[in-house]
Amino acid sequence: MSHSITITNQDLIQQLKLSGKLPEMAEGIIARKIITETATEAGIKNTTAELQQAADQFRLANELHNAKDTWNWLEKQGLSLDDFEAIVQFNLLSGKLAEHLFADKIESYFVEHQLDYTGAVIYEVVLADQAMAEELYESIQEEEISFQEVAHRYIEDVELRRKGGYRGTVYRKDLRPNLSAAIFASDSSRLLKPLQGDRGFHLIFVEEILKPKLTEELALQIRAELFNGWVKEKIQEIKYELSN
């Protein structure tokens, strides 16, 4: 028989404690205070027009196409309209503070870390057995079988199999050192010898190496990375206690 259960704020706090996520939540609270106070000190404010635009963008990003969708989402999240406005206000303020702190540092950071943003378009099949990976590598080299055929036979994930193992663009900074070194060893397309990784032995075809360009999207990514690093440093400077 189905029945309803009421979850109180005390229940939520207790669950956070038992799940070990209270320290993470506390750091989130501290981060919010740091950002808000720093923005205030810098004289950063949100205008009504900016808030309206940010709210529209938030609804669009979360597929809240009308008032009913928005109210249903708020109810599901346990939020009020005031909470929604607070989310939009804080997100907008955070973005403006990040721009204020790091807008003039993005280009120099990019120049210093260009290698981290070099991309590679790859296809990948991960196999549990090293001997099998090496055998398939030799078979592809001798044109007894294509990489696409290997992908269709040995990839379990349905969507990845349909894409022939296509992983899209990966970046040096996001890869294990041995994978990164092999993938970015040259600018030409090639099949790599099997490489050991966390999930097994990686059979990788490198389609293209993409030279880094400071696009608007990458500039926003770098700004976010610098801002998040700044917030973490500020949190570490603060001592706090979790009281019962």
Report on the structure:
The structure is a single chain. This protein is of the alpha+beta class and 244 residues long. It is 56% helix and 13% strand. It has helices spanning 9-18, 22-41, 48-61, 67-77, 81-102, 106-112, 130-141, 147-154, 158-162, 177-183, 216-236; strands at residues 119-127, 166-171, 190-191, 195-197, 200-210. Strands 1, 2, 3, 4 and 5 form a 5-stranded antiparallel sheet that branches. Helix 2 (22-41) crosses helix 5 (81-102), helix 2 (22-41) crosses helix 11 and helix 6 (106-112) crosses helix 11 (216-236). The relative contact order is 0.12. The mean pLDDT is 92.
Q: Give me the Rg, rounded.
A: 24 Å
From N to C, what is the helix and strand string?
Answer: HHHHHHEHHHEHEEEH
Q: How far from one another are the termini? A: 36 Å
Tell me the number of helical segments per DSSP (H or I, 4 or more residues long): 11
Characterize the overall form: extended
Q: State the share of residues found in helices, binned by percent.
A: 55-70%
Largest sheet geometry: 5 strands, antiparallel
Average pLDDT level: 92
Percent of sequence in beta strands = 5-15%
Low-confidence stretches: none
Strand runs, count: 5
The computed structural class is alpha+beta
